[in-house]
Amino acid sequence: NDPGGRPSPSRLPVLETNANSFCSYQVEGSPEKDGRGPTIWDEFCKIPGKIADGSSGAVACDSYNRTAEDISLIKSLGANCYRFSLAWSRIIPLGGRNDPINQAGIDHYVKFVDDLLEAGITPFITLLHWDVPDALDKRYGGLLNREEFPLDFENYARVVYKAIPKCKNWITFNEPWCSSILGYSVGAFAPGRTSNRDKSPVGDSSREPWIVGHNLLVAHGRAVKVYREEFKPTQGGQIGITLNGDATYPWDPEDPADVEAANRKIEFAISWFADPVYFGKYPDSMRKQLGDRLPEFTEEERALVQGSNDFYGMNHYTANYVRHKTGTPPPEDYLGNLETLFWSKSGECIGPETESPWLRPNPQGFRNLINWLSKRYNYPPIYVTENGTSILKENDKPVEEILEDTLRVEYFDTYVKALAKAVSEDGCNVKGYMAWSLLDNFEWAEGYVTRFGVTYVDYEKDQKRFPKKSAQSLKPLFDSLIKKD
Ligand code: PNW
């Protein structure tokens, strides 16, 4: 493939992986073991009313103590790659560049990577999947601090690259949109800041999400620069950022205002981060709507951020119909709501209900969005780093029924086939696919009620794992699609 250019359509020789994805706080448990420091999620879970079932990640899947068992599980499902995140506060418990390094935390992850490689599984490491060390939040406002946060993240990244040279695939951040919007506008995720007076802690949602997004971009740029200058020449790996984003359909495809709103919705979710990474600037639609509430890149920051992806990490779950609105939106309202989202129109529903209020399956949307990204960013290599679904009331069913997760089997079947078409018919450059997720786990504000796993975890009985039907479906699905020479 001509790097950056549109490759000629082919029969999926590109999909290296059938794999699974994970985040430290959602699976590890053991929040104090081996010297781990507290994170903003440990603190957030203590606030009454923040987590649906009043739970936390304190035990979760107990994965910190079951690495051997989990690696055998991954292997038994035929996956050849595993994405997981590190807990920064296990490596530098207080987080900062002048704080002590915790060798026990490093040793744990070094061994985990060694064991994965031994089992023939390629590790993809996410440096930060939302669980910011709490000490940094208390010390200087964490992600809100434009001077300190990027430097501390750069230092942490350097410590990790040095300690784990065998890992060749790095993701700086998972879903900065969620950290910014859910953490500093909606208030549903840690640290939960919001302008909504019915909730606390109180923040300024008219500005904070855009500042946090900006700081995450600059921190990403710094971590990439360090990797490229100090480690890539000898280690030879690749690095990128993972962004989430839903597909959109204009409510009325004949109405240019709806078409524009559908596009703007993607720009506010994805291009907010991807345009600076690929083009060195924020989208015009955002500047127009947010004015000076959206920070400006200094020349130094722009140079750090532009060109900072070796690949595009894509997390994707759902789609929406989008209808435009007019008027001046309140500044605290994160999208400025110049659009309204719908699940159905004229009796036609975008997809079946799931346990997640924000998720309805629509596989055609996946293909459309892969094409949208490929065209806008000139056919970059894409790794799908998360894709999957919850199932309506799955948690209320008897275990035998949970294990027969037909809707999830169908979700993967239709989504992966849509992805295969984006590659073989549309010429998109998708390199790998990772399902979300290997195990049922701590689903953030939804607690343990919502299950995304291809493996059932019995939280009542010692975290025992039982693969669901979907767990067995992925390997045959990929075998049927990947071209063998
Ligand atoms: C992703 N939304 O999060 C995360 O990367 C995972 O940690 C998470 O478990 C998974 O999706 C399933 O939820 C999202 O409200 C959470 O739009 C919420 C939203 C989007 C992504």
Automatic annotation (TrEMBL):
GO molecular function: cellobiose glucosidase activity
Keyword tags: Glycosidase, Hydrolase
GO biological process terms held by the UniProt record: cellulose catabolic process
Reactions accelerated catalytically: Hydrolysis of terminal, non-reducing beta-D-glucosyl residues with release of beta-D-glucose
Record carries keyword Hydrolase: yes
Protein origin, superkingdom: Eukaryota
E.C. number(s) listed in UniProt: 3.2.1.21
Enzyme class name: hydrolase
Function: Plays an important role in cellulose degradation. Shows hydrolytic activity against several glycosidic compounds.
Family: Belongs to the glycosyl hydrolase 1 family.
Full protein name: beta-glucosidase
Source species: Sodiomyces alkalinus (strain CBS 110278 / VKM F-3762 / F11)
Lineage: Eukaryota, Fungi, Dikarya, Ascomycota, Pezizomycotina
Portion held of the full protein: 91 to 575 of 575
